[in-house]
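Dear colleagues,

As part of the handover before I leave the project, I'm documenting each prediction I ran so the next person doesn't have to rerun anything. This entry is a single chain, and its sequence is reproduced below.
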Amino acid sequence: EEFLIEYPSSVGLNPADIAFLSTGADMDNVAVCTRSYGEFTVTCLATGGTGNALRSGVDRAEWFERNGKFERALGTINMLIISNVALSDGAMARAIITATDAKTAALQDLDVRSVYSPNLQATGTGTDNIIIVSGKDSAPIVRWTGGHTKMGELIAVAARFAVLEALEKQEGRKIPGR
């Protein structure tokens, strides 16, 4: 955790202004997926591991945080989603939901099972993270990124395929239809 404070400070950045994604995944296994429609482009970079896959709302939590310390770190799916258009604050928040839905679809496609309830499909790992990067203010503005919009579709497709590829690279999982 010291690194999260020391490194930004050493390059002149305020640690409070930075979002970090941490993972045990091999960064050589990062997956990149770009989708475009007209003037809209979305790119998703993803890393993945499912060593602590769970089904949210069903499985019991086994982590306990005390004074900023956690005990387990077995697998994480991280996504960095970059848009070339300006997303409103609401669109960025909704993009997280759209990307989460797509991640869950990827886990279902791969039949990833909860390590806590193996008879159930996993919905994530419990440590997953998403960062949404919006285009410049001078770019076209998008205010909604739900699944029924073209921008939502681009986010979902890029996220789903990046997660599928990341898990194929990291864990050797076979993407259906390949």
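The chain has one domain: 23-64+79-171. Strands lie at 31-37, 40-47, 78-83, 86-87, 129-133, 141-142.

All the best with the project,
I.
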